[in-house]
Amino acid sequence: MTPSFDLFSMGHSNVTAERFVAILRDAEVNAVADVRSIPASRRFPWFAKKNLEALLACEGISYVAMGDTLGGRPKDEKLYRDGVADYEAMAKEPQFQAGLDHLIDAASRSRLCVMCAEREPLDCHRCLLVARSLAERGLSVGHILHDGTIEPHVATEQRLLTLYGEGCDLFTSGQNDVVAAAYRRRAQAAAFRQKVPASHAAAEMNR
């Protein structure tokens, strides 16, 4: 019996198209929400939007691209901090909140999986931004791993705290502050970074 979750998440990484479909089938997923800002892949063309949509359609799995509202590469410069995408700021944007509403509505009518590229949930905004925001709204998210197991988001969050929670005083800071700090530190390492123009980089080196 597949565990009960409100929705799922998965990163396609480098798996074959056949394996990807098989993993979705095992989790009984019948809808995929693609939250990649750029739904394309040069190395794995079967995950390019047009090809993926056709592949899933043949398997009776619906597909919707939602990278415009739930993607991890914001177009607005104010959503970057020191050149790194600021997930906390992004989560407050009306457009992002509207995207979550759409996602939750779709999940209420199907067994839906949020899809991005990174294999490890803690390396991806689908976990650090999207799943976190869904959990804060009271939804249960299961991260589908490539061995077919499904890790509850609360367990993923516990792994995050194991990585970044040491040295934090729960009595002084409070659990919520410790969790927020752990997400912030992980996002600083994993979030999308703007490319620094070569001329600007050279100027910085010469200072």
Q: Provide the number of structural domains.
A: 1
In round numbers, the mean pLDDT is 91
Sheet having the most strands: 6 strands, mixed
Low-confidence stretches: 198-207
What is the count of β-strands?
A: 8
- Computed over alpha carbons, the radius of gyration is 18 Å
- Shape estimate: globular
Q: In whole angstroms, how far apart are the ends?
A: 61 Å
CATH architecture: Alpha-Beta Complex
The helical percent reads: 40-55%
CATH fold call: Protein-Tyrosine Phosphatase, Chain A
| Class of secondary structure makeup | alpha/beta
Highest CATH level, the class: Alpha Beta
- Secondary-structure element order, N to C: EHEHEHEEHHEHEEHHHH
Strands ordered across the widest β-sheet: 3-2-6-1-7-8
How much of the polypeptide forms β-strand, as a percent range? 5-15%
Count up the helices. Answer: 10
Structure description:
With 207 residues, this protein is an alpha/beta fold. It has one domain: Alpha-Beta Complex (Protein-Tyrosine Phosphatase, Chain A). It has ten helices and eight strands. It has helices at 17-26, 49-58, 67-70, 87-91, 94-109, 125-136, 153-164, 170-173, 175-190, 198-205, and strands at 7-11, 31-34, 62-65, 80-81, 84-85, 112-116, 141-144, 150-152. A six-stranded mixed β-sheet has the order 3-2-6-1-7-8, with helices on both faces. A two-stranded antiparallel ribbon has the order 4-5. Strand 7 and strand 8 form a beta hairpin. The radius of gyration is 18 Å and the shape is globular. Residues 198-207 have low confidence and may be disordered.
